[in-house]
Amino acid sequence: MSSKTLIAVVGPTAIGKTRLGIELAQHFGTEIISADSRQFFKEMQIGTAVPTREELDTVTHHFIQHISINEPYSVGDFEHDAIAKLDSLYKSHKTVVMVGGSGLYVDAVIKGLDNFPQVDPGLRIQLNKNLENLGLVSLQDELKKRDPNYYEQVDLENPHRVIRALEVSISAGKPYSSFLKQDKPIRNFNAVYVGINAEREVIYDRINQRVDLMMENGLLEEAKALYSFRNLNALQTVGYRELFAHMDGSFDLATAVEEIKKNTRRFAKRQLTWLRKNEQIIWVDYMYDLTTVLNQLQLN
Q: Residue numbers for the site described as Interaction with substrate tRNA (predicted)?
């Protein structure tokens, strides 16, 4: 058994993963790998809840705002880069902490990615045209027909994820989810998942408060500065998409804010659906005591 350990802090959005990740990193004298795909981009900060300057200065973080929204960066790229970073960190640390709201990205590092069939580029172009002409709901409905299992797991508000699942399902003639149970590479570290959870009302209240705080901190101004890039994949995400719709005249600002809250709550529900399938997760309450968490993890 490897003497190296990766502690993955997971849970729904706004639950307190950053705080627990920092406390664990401080306890073990180590560094943090961010596995939150929304926080990779330099141009996005408020709407992605990037850790504060104080938090970033407390513990060294990796993969926070390290690329531009104009750069293509896939989960495969992240898997490769994160494994390389872990190999480097394990030369001086027995334990590393990973904090992530993106379950796919966390699992890519710990379990490895699946091998998918080649996809006709023309199919992707057609699906993107369908998105533009028919809307996201039409693609969601198609995915539900072709792969109801993955439909229950995927972030349905993310067109990039929905299109990816559809192009694989159509090209292979079988569900995207059927490719998610293949043999995975062997990692040179042990992985421990710790998940933070709370009652649904608590999660929703924390989400609502976070969105209000984001608006107070200038999310609208940030979205305005990014409006010309609104068609990039990086910006097809909750928080920005609703404000872009407001700028396009689809609804007023108050409605846009309520849409952000509603869609973020839906996102949190999907995050938990994904995570609850993982029986390895050690769940702790959002009002955790660090000593209790460490005892549950049973790490020296």
A: 102, 124
The reply to whether 10 and 142 lie within a common domain is no
For the annotated binding site for ATP, the residues are 11-18
* Residues making up the binding site for substrate: 13-18
Annotated binding site: 11-18
Instruction: Summarize pLDDT for 122-180 with one digit per residue, the tens.
Output: 888 889 889 888 989 999 999 999 999 999 888 888 888 899 899 989 988 889 988 87
Q: Are 294 and 27 in contact (CB under 8 A)?
A: yes
Rounded to 10°, the helix 103-111/75-89 angle is: 50
Q: Are 114 and 182 contacting, i.e. CB atoms less than 8 angstroms apart?
A: yes
Q: Which domain range does residue 72 map to? A: 5-114+184-297
CA distance 231 to 140: 19
User: Do residues 246 and 227 touch, judged by C-beta distance below 8 A?
Assistant: no
Q: CATH no. for residue 217?
A: 3.40.50.300
